[in-house]
Specification:
about 300 residues, mainly alpha, 13 helices, globular
């Protein structure tokens, strides 16, 4: 089974052009499935049936996996078995009658404008690392970036003449996002005053460099962001995606068009963007309860 998994990973890369993040997520999910089968004494994919898959999903649920994560595991399994069918490694898929786990709509965590301002004000602009962190936080919020997109930015990602950021998103799709003046100025200052200190005499076009002169990992960026949220005294669980969620909800609160926000976020389906309209409605209810005399 592990040999077949390796071949499937090659197939995703060569035939499907799947991104590194997608392949790594599928690899983790399928390895977990294979380990589950091995614990049950199953070593041949031909002997896996629907009952076994359901038992695996029940085990995932018992581990506390959210519906979205379970659906991703299901997607990985479906793709794997489609590949096995094409390769004639199995005669049928055990997932044919298994439906997606129901995904309950959860409102994403967001910061108010005041809370966001507090976090953005935390980095010191007296040190190279502070200038770098300030630029990263400002850009993360200004463009609604995913943390992987922030890590992947290069010196050529910003069109300085028109103030536009070219982002390479999921599936290798490019999108253009306007960059506000504060983020633009912060990034410009970082490049002029701080970036040379991180280059370590190495030529690189990576925009944001860590102390070793290399690009950040997602985990490294996560630590920086959470540390500034704590420094700001916020009690909320702030993570990189909180900036993206706040970007979208603040734009919609200000009257931005839903379609425009969809384009800036790089969502393939506008239904994904519509969840932020629920966020703004919740925010309006909160304001009403707080300030209306009969709230």
């Amino acid at each position: 089974m592990r040999v077949l998994l390796g071949k499937y990973m090659d197939y995703l890369l060569i035939e499907k052009g799947a991104s590194d993040n997608t392949r790594e997520a599928y690899r983790r999910d399928l390895r977990r499935f294979i380990e589950f089968l091995e614990q049950k004494g199953l070593t041949d994919v031909r002997f896996v049936n629907a009952k076994t898959v359901v038992e695996f999903l029940v085990a995932l649920k018992g581990e506390g996996l959210a519906a979205n994560s379970m659906n991703r595991s299901l997607a990985a399994l479906r793709g794997f078995y489609r590949y096995l069918l094409e390769e004639k490694a199995v005669d049928e898929s055990p997932l044919a009658d298994i439906e997606r786990a129901k995904v309950w709509m959860r409102l994403p965590d967001t910061l108010s404008r005041e809370e966001m301002g507090l976090v953005l004000d935390q980095p010191s602009e007296e040190t190279p690392s502070g200038l770098r962190d300030k630029a990263m936080l400002e850009l993360l919020y200004a463009a609604g970036l995913r943390v992987s997109e922030l890590a992947g930015l290069t010196m050529n990602s910003i069109n300085w003449q028109v103030g536009f950021l070219i982002v390479l998103g999921k599936g290798g799709k490019e999108r253009g996002v306007p960059v506000g003046k504060k983020a633009y100025d912060s990034v410009r200052r970082y490049i002029d005053e701080a970036r040379p200190a991180f280059m370590k005499s190495k030529a690189t076009d990576v925009l944001f460099l860590n102390r070793f002169g290399r690009s950040f990992t997602r985990q490294g960026l996560w630590k920086i962001i959470t540390s500034y949220a704590k420094k700001a005294g916020l009690q909320k669980n702030v993570h990189p995606h909180t900036f993206r969620h706040s970007f979208a909800s603040h734009l919609l609160e200000g009257g931005a068009d839903l379609r425009a926000v969809q384009l800036m976020l790089g969502h393939a389906d506008i239904a994904t963007t519509q969840i932020y309209t629920h966020v703004t409605r919740e925010r309006l209810r909160e304001i009403h309860r707080k300030f209306h005399p009969r709230g």
